[in-house]
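Technical appendix A lists one of the benchmark inputs used to test multi-chain prediction within the project. The record comprises two sequence entries:
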Amino acid sequence: MVGLAEFEERAGVIELAWGHPDPRLLPVTALRQAGDRALRRYGADALGYGNPAGAPPLIDMVRRRLAEIDARSPAADEVAITAGSSHGLDQIATLLMDPGDVALVEAPTYHLALKILRDHPVQLVSVPSDGRGLRIDALAEAIRGVRVKGGRPRILYTVPTFHNPTGLSLSGRRRRELVALAAREGVLIVEDDAYRELAYDGPPPASLWSLGRPGTVIRLGTFSKSIAPGLRVGYMTAGAATISRFVDGGMLDSGGGNSHFVALVVAEYFRAGGYARDVQRLRVAYRKRRDRMLRALERHMPKGTRWTRPAGGYFIWVTLPPGHDTRELQPIAVANGVGFAHGRTFFGDAPGGVQSLRLAFSRYPPATLEAAIRRLGSALSTA
Amino acid sequence: MVGLAEFEERAGVIELAWGHPDPRLLPVTALRQAGDRALRRYGADALGYGNPAGAPPLIDMVRRRLAEIDARSPAADEVAITAGSSHGLDQIATLLMDPGDVALVEAPTYHLALKILRDHPVQLVSVPSDGRGLRIDALAEAIRGVRVKGGRPRILYTVPTFHNPTGLSLSGRRRRELVALAAREGVLIVEDDAYRELAYDGPPPASLWSLGRPGTVIRLGTFSKSIAPGLRVGYMTAGAATISRFVDGGMLDSGGGNSHFVALVVAEYFRAGGYARDVQRLRVAYRKRRDRMLRALERHMPKGTRWTRPAGGYFIWVTLPPGHDTRELQPIAVANGVGFAHGRTFFGDAPGGVQSLRLAFSRYPPATLEAAIRRLGSALSTA
């Protein structure tokens, strides 16, 4: 029988390629108690077909939490519960895109979002970034280019906050330019906001959703990073008409709200104060890991190597001096006991990333991260 | 705040339109205990990103259970866990159909399956049934008709066992003819097998999946009817290559296995013997309800009315004497304190169903069903 987990650790290898949480940080006991309480409190209501928009206690929790960690809190009809962000993105492609429509994507970007979009009959067009994230001028140019060829630029998928893979956040200025441009051009922004809760140097930036005019941005939130990915529950905030499109769709009409029972477990966990407490605990733990990895990079990387200094999330993006190819480095690094994700992975069909690699500091304690970076440095001397 | 449940009862109305379980029959306590045990047994493994095919203990349970209630048990690589059948059907349309492909559907059929398919860029073509279910000759003709117009008949969506809305099961002979025809024509059968566990007069018929050549049928199973719909967990059995297409898709690669945590709760419930015990309890309870509704129909329906005598599932299909229109009857029935689903609902764009209605005997105890049918009879005298 195969293992329970998607993650597989190779013997003797510290796996920094995977954007997974540390199992030791998952709130097993608190969720066990929340599950017990949810079924005592809601009884059979937790087990029947749920409200298609999602369990109201979880919608209420999302609204209350976003009032604390974002610049605006959604109205009740601006929220729907998803079965996680991956599922939310899949449903956006199904319900809001027509065959042949264009999805604009950043380069680099979350590689599996590209894979989800490619499962649909849509076209992907990459937009380049620079050291400060998505280039708004390049986006304007890409939109023009799509239109010239008769295409319909329908969505932009972007991770503006604690980006995957770079860890960077888009500046306030670029955020405002981006929402204005997208609104002007009629391009719907799909904001992957997975890492908002994991802010290590003060509050996270205001979401694009909070800055955009109603109806111009869908933000995908998730509890995969702030609680546990195995729950498969997240949310979207969007204009009320967009939310209606999901709620009135066949899947939710037929099956009732996404992840109904689990949504009530999460709401109960929140009600008991576990969520706020444990997110704070995660921030402290991951901040230490980020800091330790940054210090280790200073110590072990060859001259001329650059890396990002993320204020949140899971990832540091490392760019080696000219002449390196991280795909070629990969087997050498694994032989030295460290795994990473090579940069090309995140560029889809666009150029770039050859000298770069993504490191996740989420899964291991600080001392193990230190050892991993030492091994990476040693692999680089060998290569 | 809106209610937790999708179901809404109108004051004074017995609602027979909804295919929902009786909340009093949902195993609240047993699932509370199973949730507790699952987190004690699996710990953080229940909360991380799960194996994309689904949690192995639940796959194992599906294989063991189908060995008891179907003619063949799937191999491990012939099963994937879904987030319920609605989600499974949605994913079939996304991953296995191209824009413009044709989905053949029965008339009548489960109306929300039509709605799920219509959310995708595919065409629906209805195939007529008779009193013994889907007509295989009509299916052959429909396939020819699609091909003549240059279309590609990609799937047939069908509910062969304890059908929704009629309650009928396809005969063994038609099953064999159907799988042979579909294989010959290269049409993939999507078998909605939601009601298999709810068999009241002996074992259910062998599934199309068990009769078909490997790779020619996908069966959608669910725990919504046999445990609780709010869990949002089900499974599919299919050829190993088809399963791979789902497992290798972007959504599962990104998010890990569907409903991972809940899948382990269900596996634990099964392991403790709760599943087998409670399904037996459901069969006994629903059999009484079916019998009571059938007797009440004898007593209260006007002469010339016909109805099905289902051997399982949730539904009885009633056809009134010529001249009736159940859409017009509906408000009169509601005024008399009983709701039903009118027959046109289940025909999509195809003709039929004007004189028919669907009654669910799942949600209320026998005495209430008796009262409901008395009210329906009284509404019919008025109409």
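Chain B touches chain A through 80 residues (CB under 8 Å). Residues 274-300 of chain B form the longest helix (27 residues). Comparable benchmark entries are summarised in Table A2.
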